[in-house]
Specification:
The structure is a single chain. This protein is mainly alpha-helical and 363 residues long. The strands form 2 sheets. Strands 1-2 form a two-stranded antiparallel sheet. A two-stranded antiparallel ribbon has the order 3-4. The longest helix is centred in the C-terminal third of the chain and has 42 residues. It is a multi-pass membrane protein. This is G-protein coupled receptors family 1 profile domain-containing protein. Keywords: G-protein coupled receptor, Membrane, Receptor, Transducer, Transmembrane, Transmembrane helix.
């Protein structure tokens, strides 16, 4: 029998159970209000932060960096899920019946699919970013620019990876149902069939274990490479500038790993436990916490870029001041002169550039 036919014949046992026990699945009114308030903050901060990220990365000084397309792709993915994914869940919970299989089947499938697809595509993008950074930093040649066609291919791959990971529930291999909190949809983490369990374990592997393993390996090799570099010839000031740049790269990498683990580890752990036990391990109210931590991923990247990247932060300040294209500076005589973004920085940044190292060509 075709897998697609299985999903269209009659509601599964889990669906029937979810539909008949709807009041027990949903948290109390206080929990719903708290969830919606936190989601509103995530939506607002995430949208503004990622729009500003796109504007910053569109400026001249960032366009030619290998890492920029990946940062841009992450920002676009976050905006997609903020605009098309999360609001569906929030709006459904304003209704009297809430988000459930029986009354909101279409919304449940849509929110589960788009949230999962965009989330895994973002993780895949972060993984490819780490591989590209390792390749660029450790490459012997100074030519580290990735061809445009190859970059487009990598970006497309991340999206295909994310979408394909969430297609099986659409064709009958597992299903999208409200999660333990009852106010957000996801794959059924407590399936009654071995096939459903197999899909869940596969999803955990391709969506968390494999990307995290590659990221940790790549960043560990980057760190070891930077630490193993012998002192370079030249003035002490140039060596100090280069070493400071390398340390900043390592710190930003560490923050990216921390944000990734913080966002997805609790949700993944709870999901694995539900699959093993065959039932939810958290109450509806407490199940909101790992769900919200995973959804808060959309606000972390702009914060990491701003806190850990001086060039990004300087450009952001010009964006906020509406001076991305032209900015004004006052010379010592008090006269105003216009400086374009192509101009050299002002006095504080007029130190002659050291020979361009591979770490600076990436970030």
């Amino acid at each position: 029998m075709n897998a697609c036919n299985l999903s269209t014949q009659a509601p599964s046992t889990s669906q029937t159970m979810l539909g008949s026990q709807e009041p027990q699945l949903r948290p109390n009114n206080t929990g719903i209000v708290a969830y919606i308030v936190v989601m509103a903050v995530i939506l607002a901060v995430g949208f503004v932060g990622n729009v500003l990220t796109i504007l910053v990365l569109s400026c001249h000084e960032h366009k030619n960096k290998n890492i920029t397309p990946f940062m841009m792709n992450l920002a676009i993915a976050d905006i997609i899920i903020i605009v098309f994914g999360y609001p569906v869940v929030v709006a459904a919970n304003f209704t009297s019946s809430g988000l459930n299989v029986r009354n909101s089947r279409t919304q449940c499938i849509w929110s589960g699919f788009i949230n999962g697809s965009v989330g895994i595509a973002s993780i895949a993008n972060l993984t490819m970013m780490s591989l590209v950074m390792y390749s660029a930093i450790s490459k012997v040649s100074n030519s580290t620019k990735i061809p445009r066609s190859k970059m487009i291919g990598i970006i497309i791959f991340t999206w295909v990876y994310g979408v394909m990971a969430m297609v099986p529930p659409l064709v009958g291999w597992n299903e999208f149902v409200p999660g333990a909190s009852g106010i957000s949809c996801c794959p059924n983490w407590s399936p009654e069939t071995k096939a459903g369990m197999a899909y869940n374990m596969l999803l955990v592997f391709v969506g968390f274990v494999l990307p995290l393993s590659v990221i940790i390996y790549s960043y560990h090799r980057i760190y070891r490479y930077i630490r193993a570099q012998p002192p370079m010839l030249g003035s002490a000031s140039i060596q100090a500038i280069r070493r400071k740049s390398e340390i900043k790269v390592v710190r930003m990498i560490a923050m990216s790993i921390a944000a990734f683990v913080l966002s997805w580890s609790p949700y993944t752990f709870v999901s694995i436990m539900a699959t093993i036990r065959g039932s939810n391990v958290l109450t509806p109210d407490s199940a909101e916490v790992p769900d919200l931590l995973a959804k808060a991923w959309v606000i972390y990247n702009p914060i990491v870029y701003t806190a850990m990247n001086d060039r990004f932060r300087r450009t952001l300040m010009r964006i906020v001041s509406i001076r991305c294209i032209f900015r004004k500076a006052i010379n010592p005589m008090g006269r105003t002169m216009s400086l374009t973004v192509e101009s050299r920085p002002t006095h504080a940044y007029t130190i002659p550039d050291p020979p361009r190292d591979r770490a600076q060509s990436v970030v």
